[in-house]
Amino acid sequence: xxxxxxxxxxxxxxxxxxxxxxxxxxxxxxxxxxxxxxxxxxxxxxxxxxxxxxxxxxxxxxxxxxxxxxxxxxxxxxxxxxxxxxxxxxxxxxxxxxxxxxxxxxxxxxxxxxxxxxxxxxxxxxxxxxxxxxxxxxxxxxxxxxxxxxxxxxxxxxxxxxxxx
Length: 165
Ligand SMILES: [Zn+2]
Hints:
By secondary structure, the chain is α/β, with parallel strands linked by helices. The protein has 5 helices and 8 strands; from the N terminus they run βαβαββαβαββαβ.
């Protein structure tokens, strides 16, 4: 499932990308514009706005109710009954949504802190923004968080979600 996040769900978008989901962000513009873009690109719109809920719009939309981005991830996974496959975790740039590419260690010398360069052998880079990613503590923490998120979601009921009309 592909997503489009409007400006109210930017942090959620980054967390979903960390799980490997394809999430395009629209940083500005009215909700209607985000809805049109989602529709034309065949994406599920993620928004905190309820404005589309009562309208006759022919798009798929999930209205996010939780405040905390971590809770929002849980909510979206539960509402859409999604189970992110662990191998896809951190396969995308958190900022650009591009699929990360493996990069030889010697090519990141000078582009990451020295202690990072010495500590890791596996690096990935984003083809768009050129950021370098490595399996550091941040990754481990996020993975743990996501595993907990996925494990806990079955015990709570967020109800049905999916379509606005
Ligand atoms: Zn990037």
